[in-house]
Amino acid sequence: MPALAGIVGVLLGAGAMMGRNGLAWRETDTRGRTEGIVHAYLLDHPEVIQEANQRLQDRETGRLIAASRPAIETPVGDAFAGNPKGDVSVVEYYDYNCGFCRASLPTIAQLVRAEPSVRVVYRELPVLAQSSLVAARASLLAAGQGRFRRFHDGLYAAGPVTDATIAAASRLAGVDTSRAAAERPGEDAAIRANLDVARHLGMAGTPAWVVGDRVLVGAQTLDQLRAAVAAARAARGAAA
To answer: Residue 239: pLDDT above 90?
Structure first.
């Protein structure tokens, strides 16, 4: 009888092992089938990978923007357009020597008209020439005196950026350029802060834009900017 019991035990153990192995095989087979289906779907729909990558990038960019949001969205003086208490800020990083920045002026004006609750914030990013740095300093000086828009539009309208056109734009805007007014460390500190933010956010050139938790690079159409504004509003609503 003990021998019989032992044999039965061995058979039962073997059966249990076969059952576990069979279950493991079925799980492996199911996983393999699932992976095959997913792989085939991704090959047929590569845009899904692009969307996933974009979401991952947006998440990381959003984290970086959140850490510097006050420095990004708070204008210097009157260096803004649109609603001063706008629910969404569209921040343009620009260079006065950038032709695409000049070409964006009408688009920004259209955006302000189309989105009355948006605030456009202007941030100097002088990366193209030494004259860009001189112009950025003058622009910040004008903003601190409440003369930004007059200087900004005037310098863009004056053609190539030179000491002469910067001086003329400042004069026409009524900017006080005396030594006492101009020799302030705040302008260079603001420019360094802009360059630091741009580096952290991977801005490779101008114009570059920060809207909500996203960075947009290059000239944007009105529809693209409005879509970014809508996305920022939706994200804010979802987080509330």
So the answer is: no
